[in-house]
């Protein structure tokens, strides 16, 4: 049986010739080399030119899951996977064929050792030089004759974990490429040199270009010429500061059409924090851009229409205001003439009888006079209400705030209403809570509100029915309620009764008429005073509730 490597190391014909004092250090040196060889933490194997194992260190044999005896004279290729056996055999043959003392070769091979945890090794091999410089190893045959054959030293490094990491990285990269190619957005990556190094399949399908055409700065060829410089500036500026960036540009689609895309880039860093480049995504925003353009055009058109409507409204208001003022003068003259006619009818009955006017004709004259007087008042109220609404809309009517003692003030207002509306034969009742606080308000506006509500109640309730005015404090408000009985307002009409010129259909059985501006003016005045109004109508009654804030008096 051939000697192990330790036999090779011990071979020396001069040991017997050495004096005792020289042999002892050499023996210790041999033991040191023997231990170093056996326990060095790597696999060391010596093979002959036929691939037969001559020697294995003890650590190596244990790492491979064998004993020294099991490995000696075994063919070296039997330790490796079938797919790598030919690679190893060809590599050793080439090494022996070249026969260079300085030639060192290496391979990464997969082991086939069932009892070993090592799967992958990096094999470094060379031919061992001898003491005389020849690339041979001396061994003794059975007849003690001396022969010379090359010996190959193979050092096997365990790279199993490294290979597993490579496999994991390869699998991770494969997963990334698979995910990136099937992502519904266009993806790209660049390196530390600013050059683009990756585009996913979505990008290539969108542009209709190959990966080779897009790499580096090739992707710029698909950008609209007007957007190219701005994109380069945005990208390079962000690259210098390692910051996230966004840019919108037009990218040529495969059919030659330029489409708007939103491109977002985020810096990449290694686990150690070193900058590795950028990764980015681009999405097609053409529809959004078209919608923005359409919206801007629509807004511009709408703004123009609003300006035209405001101009028309202003012209309309100016026209109506002018017409109202022009109508007021002749109506004032007509009212004065009607009043003079009334005085004549009342004070000169004898002259009328003298001309033989019958009593029935006199009654007709008085009725015609009453119609003329009522219609003239109606037209004057219409014009006055309209002008008041115009002033409120334009905020040209300043408020004159006064401190009011509600009890005495409201009593005077009700008496004034009764004196002016002597034909109103309803039962008015006034209910004022005691100890009410003073109210800071514009008395003219508040009087106008209550007069309009009372006038409305008289018009739309049967003669002789009750109308109540109630005043009380409610939380931080002064609450006024005007309630009339004998008629209801349909709930469906609540939202429209405060509109200008709106009158509830079939809700005037007594043919009192109206301008359709009274409640509109009431609401405007209440809002102007900072208050609220709401209506309730049920159980054959209608109640308007006005709430005005109680303002604290300054000391």
Question: Number of DSSP strands?
Answer: 19
Q: What is the name of the CATH class of the largest domain?
A: Alpha Beta
What is the number of helical segments per DSSP (H or I, 4+ residues)?
A: 15
Mean pLDDT rating: 81
**Main sheet: strands, sense, barrel:** 5 strands, antiparallel
As for the CATH topology of the largest domain, it is Beta-Lactamase
Summing up helix and strand content along with how strands pair, one would put the structural category as alpha+beta
Shape-level CATH architecture of the largest domain: 2-Layer Sandwich
Describe the strand arrangement of the main beta sheet, using strand numbers: 2-1-7-4-3
Report the uncertain regions. Answer: 1-18, 135-147, 349-356
- Supply the CATH superfamily name of the largest domain: PAS domain
Count of the domains: 4
The end-to-end distance, rounded to whole angstroms, is 124 Å
């Amino acid at each position: 049986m051939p000697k192990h490597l330790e036999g090779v190391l011990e071979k020396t014909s001069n040991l017997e010739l050495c004096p005792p004092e020289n042999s002892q250090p050499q023996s210790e040196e041999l033991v040191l080399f023997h231990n170093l060889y056996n326990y060095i933490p790597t696999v060391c194997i010596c093979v002959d030119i036929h691939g037969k194992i001559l020697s294995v260190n003890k650590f190596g044999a244990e790492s491979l899951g064998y004993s020294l005896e099991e490995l000696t004279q075994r063919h070296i290729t039997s330790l490796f996977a079938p797919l790598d056996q030919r690679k190893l055999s060809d590599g050793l043959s080439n090494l022996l064929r070249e026969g260079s003392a300085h030639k060192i070769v290496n391979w990464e091979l997969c082991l086939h050792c069932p009892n070993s945890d090592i799967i992958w090794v990096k094999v470094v091999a060379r031919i061992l030089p001898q003491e005389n410089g020849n690339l041979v190893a001396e061994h003794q045959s059975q007849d003690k004759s001396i022969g010379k054959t090359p010996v190959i030293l193979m050092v096997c490094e365990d790279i199993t974990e490294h290979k597993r990491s490579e496999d994991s990285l390869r699998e991770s990269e494969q997963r990334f490429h698979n995910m990136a190619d099937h992502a519904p957005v266009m993806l790209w990556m660049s390196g530390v040199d600013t050059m683009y190094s990756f585009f996913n399949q979505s990008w290539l399908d969108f542009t209709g270009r190959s990966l080779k055409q897009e790499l580096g700065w090739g992707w710029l060829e698909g950008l609209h010429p007007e957007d190219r410089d701005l994109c380069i500036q945005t990208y390079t500026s962000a690259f210098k500061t390692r910051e996230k960036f966004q840019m919108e540009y037009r990218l040529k689609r495969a059919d030659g059409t330029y489409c708007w895309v939103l491109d977002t880039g985020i810096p990449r860093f290694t686990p150690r924090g070193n900058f590795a480049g950028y990764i980015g995504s681009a999405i097609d925003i053409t529809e959004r851009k078209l919608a923005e353009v359409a919206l801007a055009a629509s807004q511009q058109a709408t703004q123009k229409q609003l300006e035209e409507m405001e101009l028309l409204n202003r012209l309309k208001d100016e026209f109506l205001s002018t017409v109202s003022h022009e109508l007021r003068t002749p109506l004032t003259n007509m009212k004065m003439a009607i009043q003079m006619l009334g005085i004549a009818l009342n004070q000169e009955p004898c002259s009328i009888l003298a001309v033989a006017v019958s009593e029935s004709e006199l009654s007709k004259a008085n009725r015609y006079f009453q119609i003329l007087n009522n219609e003239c008042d109606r037209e004057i109220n219409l014009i006055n209400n309209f002008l008041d609404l115009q002033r409120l809309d334009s905020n040209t009517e300043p408020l004159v705030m006064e401190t009011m003692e509600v009890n005495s003030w409201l009593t005077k207002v009700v008496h004034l209403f009764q004196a002016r509306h002597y034909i109103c034969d309803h039962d008015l009742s006034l209910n004022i809570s005691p100890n009410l606080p003073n109210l800071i308000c514009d008395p003219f506006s508040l009087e106008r509100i209550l007069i309009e509500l009372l006038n409305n109640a008289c018009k739309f309730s049967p003669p002789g029915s009750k109308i109540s005015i109630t005043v009380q404090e409610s939380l931080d408000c002064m609450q006024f309620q005007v309630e009339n009985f004998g008629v209801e307002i349909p709930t469906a009409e609540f939202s429209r009764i405060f509109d200008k010129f709106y009158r509830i259909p079939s809700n005037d059985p007594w043919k009192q008429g109206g301008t359709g501006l009274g409640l509109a003016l009431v609401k405007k005045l209440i809002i102007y005073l900072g208050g609220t109004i709401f209506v309730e109508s049920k159980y054959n009654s209608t109640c308007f509730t006005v709430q005005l804030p109680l303002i604290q008096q300054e000391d």
